[in-house]
Amino acid sequence: MNTSQLRQVDLNLLVVFAVFAEERSVSAAATRLLLTQPAVSRALNRLRTMFNDDLFIRGKGRYELTPNAARILKELEVVLPRIDRLVRGSEFDPLKEEVVFNIACTDYALSILGPQITRRIISHGSKASLCFVVFSESVYQDLEQGHVDLAFQVHEERIPVSLATEKLFEEEMVCIVPNSWAKLSRLSLDRYAASGHVIVSLHDSVQAFPDKALLRHGIKRKSLLRVPHFLAALECVEATDLVATVPKRFAEKYARHFHVRVIAPPKELERYEYWMAWHPRLNSDSAHQWLRREVRLAARSL
């Protein structure tokens, strides 16, 4: 971390900058800052020297910001509340502090959990925003390096023990089959194993669940098609004689839009757990605590 320039800066000047940019008046800024007007004028001169810019130009009845001052103010509106919270150790307030949360997830999590989270976090007046990114092979490295704040996934042994995790909810799988199939309430394990399958996987030829559960019974699915998203799997089943194994909540939301049937999977495919993971350095971060709390409440509403 290079702080050579920061060591030469009086951070109180940035507070003066922010207040004056809001007030555009020496007297009004002095009142808010509990300073004399000459002290505010001296601080403004020091700011002009520090940024090598006029910053504020006198206009009709008030000062106007230069383009550089406007850019600085935009940055300070994000940075100063965080510094203030850091010093005071206060709770995160989404109505006052701008923050972007990056969440890695699959199309399943985004379509089922995403709307619930969005409704809670992107509320009226909130300055918090969300960026959902694709759950990729580098997700654990992204969590380690701080590129991603939170990841949603099936709980399995792949999650590094160095990460913090928490169970969100339980899910179960159902089978999507073509409408041409005879009506069945459930697929037997034998027929399931003999059928051709659409595999939904972002990384490799294995769909974390149910493939790893099937291996315990010595079964490997006959993979004839691999797609990266569950919605694509539904479309492919409609056009083929293949079977797709998808989460029940996803099927309940989307299967009715396709010419397919939804039937129960073999009894050997048990329920599974969906978790969130994050780096432990964020355990006590109040903004991340707030995020996890909102995600937790969103998951309970499913």
From TrEMBL:
Protein name: LysR family transcriptional regulator
Family: Belongs to the LysR transcriptional regulatory family.
HTH lysR-type domain location: 9-66
Top-level taxonomic group: Bacteria
TM helices/strands, residue ranges: none
Pfam families in the record: HTH_1, LysR_substrate
Keyword ATP-binding: no
Gene3D superfamilies associated with the record: Periplasmic binding protein-like II (3.40.190.10), Winged helix-like DNA-binding domain superfamily/Winged helix DNA-binding domain (1.10.10.10)
This protein's UniProt keywords: DNA-binding, Transcription, Transcription regulation
GO molecular function: DNA binding; DNA-binding transcription factor activity
